[in-house]
Predict the 3D structure of the following.
Amino acid sequence: MTGFAAIAGDVNAGPSPAGEITGQGRVAVTRLTLTDFRNYAQARLNLDARSVVLAGANGAGKTNILEAVSFLAPGRGLRRAKLGEVTRTDAGTEAAPAGRSWAVAAEVDGPDGPVSLGTGLDPEPGTVRDRRVVRVDGQTEKAQAVLAEHIAVVWLTPQMDGLFIDGPGARRRFLDRLVYAADPAHAGRVSAYEQAMRERARLLSDHGPGADAAWLDALEATMAEKGMAVAWARRDMVGRLAAFIEAGAGPFPGAVLGLAGGPEAWLDDMPSLAAEEHLRNRLAQERGADAQDGRTRTGPHRTDLEVRHAAKKREAALCSTGEQKALLIALVLAHARMRAVERGACPVLLLDEVAAHLDQDRRIALFDLIDGLNAQAWMTGTDPELFAGMRDRAQFFQVADGAVSAPETS
Ligand SMILES: Nc1ncnc2c1ncn2[C@@H]1O[C@H](COP(=O)(O)OP(=O)(O)OP(=O)(O)O)[C@@H](O)[C@H]1O
Ligand SMILES: [Mg+2]
């Protein structure tokens, strides 16, 4: 145990993994209403703070409900969908009829007490791009980021099974999501950086390295400022998470995290301002080369999250399928535990089809860990029997053809 404290102390003076999970109570969704959301015309779940089990056949609408919960946090939701795709379409049609737009409303027991959250596709026509509206206690808010004051949501989906084998982009996005579950401003930094990068690339492709120098200077200054802020926040997250992830939890293995390929490592050797200056100089020097091959060779858009299985001392991509899945669960649980200790409130966990891949012992261990975190977890599966170990600790729903009901026996 002493090792823990020492590591936590080195990385960050913040809370250690041995810290108590105290806090008011559990952050939980206590009512969820969907309107014209994917295959639901209208659905309502009345809930208490316990975890939620959704059982039903393939295609019934289980993941759609998790996606609806994911829209209670800022961002694009767990499918990274275009907003317009989410609106319910009629059978045999590809687009929703004019005038129909999706909405999700929820009552949430947040860290500061109960709050009503509402979000959906802006029904006002005339905007060029689809816009997501956000309401908190009935007041329309300008920025989605305010949602993060009331709820954080983290998810694991079957699409993430290949995370350690896929390209670095998916791992980078996974890390960025962990960062902005704790620091909502991170999303804005990432998109400001990417927007400046795209504009610089367009300028270089249209006019070559001799393009308007003042314009390029300004874009590169933005990229350097936002980019190093992104890098700093990622490095800080990985540093804080290290102490929580290194030992693992129950049957879920420990991991060692690292960042490679981007400018995060510069921050080991120089202060932030110097690193910002360094990135700006690099971008200026590389205009010619970047123009030539139509890419941006340096910056935080190149960063990869490296994950190693601590006990096996092996990189995650070389671990077995089951080990990779267990590592991913371990990462999400470690992050949840870190947030619970830091903030006294655990994110809501969306675990899509996670139970089916675990043997009985691991499944029970997962349920126990979720309870220990004081988390509301939403879990799906085709067979409710998978969740027998959760019988008294969760509320069960049956999902069929776009309707949700509490089963007669649970
Ligand atoms: N915009 C939409 N309008 C109407 N239906 C939609 C829309 N988008 C998706 N669907 C449908 O919703 C249905 C349920 O999808 P969902 O992914 O929630 O199923 P699931 O219960 O998670 O199934 P599985 O067990 O296979 O993962 C699918 O048949 C899908 O085609
Ligand atoms: Mg599904």
Notes: Residues 225 and 235 are 16 Å apart (CA to CA).
